[in-house]
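Wed. Picked up where I left off yesterday with DUF2069 domain-containing protein. The coffee machine is broken again, so keeping this brief.
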Amino acid sequence: MTPALWHRLLLAGHLGTLAVLVAWYGWLSPSPQLPTALVLLVLGVPLLLPLRGLLHGRRYTAAWSLFLAIAYCAHALVELYSSPDDRLYAGIELVTTLTWFVAGIGYIRATRDEL
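Structure written out below (tokens, as returned):
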């Protein structure tokens, strides 16, 4: 696969994770115990940090953003196990984070000769 395709998949996984979390906690199933704005800030702001570097195709940003992907993957797994009502949303989050992670590794490997 070409680096451009890996990059598109990486962005799709990253932006998909952001979209799923905003939709899940903003509209589809907001938390009754916590303010929606607080939940969206805590879950959404970390995803905005690497966005500029990912949009520009920077390898280093793609590499360190995978640590975030692992954290969001863990979040999805915990929600899959502990929240029967939200399993669909957690499953979608798991798919998007795994896409982000695998595509990130593919992108880093495909662009390693460009240093």
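Quick read: The chain has a mean pLDDT of 95.
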